[in-house]
Specification:
The protein is α+β, with helices and mostly antiparallel strands. It has 6 helices and 5 strands. The N terminus is likely disordered.
C-alpha cells in the first residue's frame, strides 16, 4: 500500500525550484538594467548641469558689460547736453553781436541818407554858386563870402565821406569777426566731442579692469552683488545694526579693495580725474539713539568710516569720496524684511570728479 502511494504521488519540488530560479534571474536582469540606466542618466544630468552653469556665468558677464555700456552712454549723453548748453550760450552771444551789427547797419543807412542829402545840397549850392559866379563874372565881382561858404560845404562833405569810409571798414571787420567766431564755435564743438569721447573711453577701460579684478577676487562670496556700474556689499558685512564702527570681517574685504585701488592708480594716467565714490544706504526703519539722530547721519558716517579705513591702508585721499543717502535711494521698495536687508548696503563706484 505504501509502495503504491509513493509511485503514484507527484513530486512538484524540482519544478518549483526551476520556476524560482527563473524568476530570480529575471529580477536580477531588470535590476541590472535599472542600475545601468540610472548610471547613464546621472552622467547625462551632470553634463547638462555643467553646461547650464557655464551659460549662467556667460549671461552674468554679458549683463555686467551691458550695464557698463549703458552707464557710459548715459555719461556721454550728459556731457553732450552740457556741450549743447555751452553752444547755446555762444549762439546767444553771437545773436547779440548780430543785433549790434544790425544797429550799425541802420546807423550806416542813416549816414548814407545824410550823405545823399548833403550831396544834393552840394549840387544845389554848386548850381547856385555857378549861377552866382556867372552873375559875378558878368559883373566882374567875386563875393568872398560865397567862396568861404563853398569851402565850408566842401570840408563838411569831405568829413562825411571819411566817416562813411570808417563805418564801412568797421562793418567789414564785424562781418569778418562774425565768421571767425562761427568757425571757432564749430571747431570748439568738434574738439570738445573728441575730448569727451576720449576721456569716457579711457576711464571706461580702467573701470572694466577694476570691476573685473574685484569680481575675480570676490566671486565666491554671496554677500556682494553688481548693480549697474556699482559693487554693492550688504552693510552687515561691515557694521553691526545702528553702528558705524567697522567690523573685522569688513576690514578684510576693504584690504582687498585697497590693494586693487593702489595697483590701479599707477595704471590710470594722471590727466584722468577719477575717484572711487563710497555711498552709504540704510533701510526705512527710523533710528533714534545717542549717536545718530537720523538714518542719513548713520549712512554718511558709515561711508566716511570706509573712506578713512581705505586711507589708512595707503589709498590717497584725493581719489576717495564719501556720500550718505539714508533711506532715500532704495533698491527694493517693498516693506518687507528681505527688502529692508537688501536696502542696507555700501556701494562702490569708480567715476570722474
Amino acid at each position: 500500500m505504501r509502495r503504491f502511494r509513493n509511485s503514484s504521488g507527484y513530486n512538484f519540488w524540482p519544478s518549483f525550484v526551476d520556476a524560482l530560479s527563473t524568476l530570480l534571474i529575471v529580477v536580477l536582469f531588470f535590476l541590472l538594467l535599472f542600475v545601468l540606466a540610472h548610471f547613464f542618466m546621472g552622467q547625462n544630468l551632470d553634463t547638462k548641469n555643467t553646461e547650464i552653469s557655464r551659460l549662467n556665468l556667460q549671461l552674468q558677464d554679458l549683463a555686467f558689460e551691458l550695464s557698463a555700456e549703458r552707464q557710459t552712454s548715459k555719461d556721454l549723453t550728459d556731457r553732450l547736453a552740457l556741450q549743447q548748453q555751452e553752444t547755446h550760450e555762444l549762439t546767444e552771444e553771437l545773436s547779440g553781436l548780430k543785433d549790434e551789427q544790425t544797429k550799425a547797419l541802420a546807423q550806416i543807412a542813416l549816414l548814407e541818407q545824410d550823405v545823399k542829402a548833403l550831396n544834393l545840397r552840394k549840387q544845389e549850392l554848386e548850381k547856385e554858386t555857378a549861377e552866382k559866379s556867372n552873375e559875378l563874372l558878368s559883373e566882374r565881382k567875386i563875393s568872398q563870402e560865397a567862396k568861404a561858404h563853398l569851402a565850408l560845404l566842401n570840408a563838411q562833405t569831405e568829413k562825411l565821406t571819411k566817416e562813411l569810409a570808417q563805418l564801412g571798414t568797421l562793418l567789414d571787420q564785424a562781418d569778418k569777426k562774425d565768421k571767425e567766431q562761427q568757425a571757432q564755435i564749430a571747431d570748439l564743438g568738434k574738439k570738445l566731442n573728441r575730448a569727451l569721447a576720449a576721456k569716457a573711453s579711457e576711464l571706461a577701460s580702467y573701470r572694466s579692469e577694476f570691476f573685473g579684478t574685484l569680481r575675480k577676487v570676490l566671486q565666491d562670496r554671496d554677500d556682494f552683488r553688481i548693480e549697474g556700474d556699482r559693487f554693492v556689499f550688504q552693510s552687515e558685512l561691515f557694521f553691526k545694526s545702528g553702528s558705524a564702527f567697522l567690523e573685522e570681517t569688513g576690514k578684510k574685504q576693504l584690504n582687498i579693495l585697497a590693494n586693487t585701488l593702489k595697483e590701479l592708480q599707477h595704471k590710470i594716467p594722471k590727466k584722468i580725474p577719477w575717484v572711487l565714490r563710497v555711498d552709504g544706504h540704510t533701510d526705512n526703519v527710523p533710528i533714534h539713539n545717542a549717536e545718530y539722530a537720523s538714518n542719513w547721519q548713520l549712512s554718511a558716517n558709515r561711508a566716511i568710516a570706509v573712506v578713512q579705513y581705505l586711507i589708512s591702508r595707503g589709498v590717497p585721499a584725493r581719489y576717495l569720496v564719501a556720500a550718505g543717502f539714508g533711506e532715500h535711494q532704495p533698491i527694493d521698495r517693498r516693506n518687507t524684511e528681505a527688502a529692508r536687508r537688501k536696502n542696507r548696503r555700501i556701494e562702490f563706484k569708480l567715476t570722474e570728479r
